Every structure is written in C-alpha cells, then in structure tokens.
Amino acid sequence: MNTKITLLLSMVLIVSLSCNNSKKNAHENSKEHEHHWSYSGETSPEHWIEIEKNSNCDGKHQSPINIIHKNVDSVKIQEDLKIQYTPVTLISEVKNNGHSIQFDFEAGDSINYKNETYYLKQIHFHEPSEHKINGVIYPIEMHLVHVSKAGKVTVLGLLGEEGDDSQLFEFFESFLPIEEGAVKDIHQKIDLSSLFLEAKHYYSYGGSLTTPPCTEQVNWIVFKEPIILSVEEVLKLKNNMPINNYRNEQPLNERVVTYHF
C-alpha cells in the first residue's frame, strides 16, 4: 500500500514539474517573440544587430548619413534620374505598422534611375529627419521607396521644413489618426507631380534601408531643397508615430556622395 502511495506521489510530482517547465518555456518563447526592434530602450537602433541576427545592420554601407556639402563630388544634372509621376496613380491603403505611417501604392508611378525603371511601392515618414545636410536635422523626412523588377531599391528622401500648409500633406493626413496595427483601404488618386522634384538639386550615394534588416545596395537620392509643410501638419504626423522614429547617423566609410546640380 505504501509503495502504491509513493508511486502515485512521484507521478504527481513529475507531472507538476513537467507542467511548470512547459509554462516556463512557453513564457520564454513568448518573450523572445516579443523581442522586436524599436526606436527606444533595449531594442533601439544601437541594439538592432543584437536582436536582428541575420541583418546587415552592422554593415559598412549603412544609412542614414550626414551629408557634408563641401566634401561631395559635384556634377551637373544629366539624365541619371527621370521622375515619371502622373496625376492618376492610386494609393491602395494606409497602415500604422508601429514604426511609421505608411502609404502603399497600386501600380502606376515610377522613376528611371541610371537607365533602369523603379516602381513606387510605398511612402513613409520619419520624425525628425534621418539624413542631415551639414549637420542640420529637419523636422521630418519622407521616404519614397521604389523597387525594380529585378528587386533593386531606390529611395527618394525628401526633407521637410516648417512653413506654409501643404495640400499634399493635408491629403495624407485626412486618413489620420490610425491606430497601431490598423490598415485603412483608400483607393484614391494622388498627384505627386506637385512635389516638382525635377526642379530640385539632389545628392546620391549607395546605402541601405534605414530599418531592419538594413539591406545594403540601396540607391539613395536625397533632395537638397526641402519641401514645405506647416507646423500643425508636422505635429499631426508626429502624434501618429513613435516618438523619434529615426535611426542614428551612420559612418560614411569612404563612400562618395555626389551632388547633382
């Protein structure tokens, strides 16, 4: 009888320990799953390479950078960049992905860079700016992400300066606020030709995505002349994004920045 009781107690103990270990492992797996990159604390840009093991976030050709004008190579604007935006391109949806406000596009607008066509996929925002010019940080930066059929990436970086209202930003912000994780269908036309990018001077260099996985071999085109939007428009975007959703400045590492004028 005593032997049976001892065996029963042993089985209860084993089951109990097994359940506790399962709960512990599940809790640890849950914590590991939640351990995702962000812009602050232990998952801020300084720690991205630690939590994004298979990323390029510790690469030698990373973005953003501080563009020092006196150190760039200058060339007259040739036919390297052709903007092919039309008034009838449709925004498909807007989302708050927890890192920025992002507008996704249907097929339509494109650019031609160095004789290759890149199609506009999405626009998102960083506050304050990620790129600097002569050490100047702007209130906001807009990234227009383009991808070729071969999967190559070219990003147009537009720095924002506070001033008069912008009809384009009024349109963007008409779909805000939007909660983190939420997606809104839009399917409305947008005319990005109002940005008049063809008239702006720009810097170009080889860099990376500014968010994990920090993929390199990205063509960067950063326009020298900022776009103008109101203080209220800057604040409205800011209130819908994480505070300071920018990556810190990355070393140039012998890369050449070219100024096109």
TrEMBL record:
Residues 35-261 form the Alpha-carbonic anhydrase domain. Keywords: Lyase, Metal-binding, Zinc. Its EC number is 4.2.1.1. Pfam families: Carb_anhydrase. InterPro entries: Alpha_CA_prokaryot-like, CA_dom, CA_dom_sf, Carbonic_anhydrase_a-class, Carbonic_anhydrase_a-class_CS. Its cofactor is Zn(2+). The keyword Metal-binding applies. It catalyses: hydrogencarbonate + H(+) = CO2 + H2O. Reversible hydration of carbon dioxide. Belongs to the alpha-carbonic anhydrase family. This is Carbonic anhydrase. It comes from Flavivirga jejuensis.
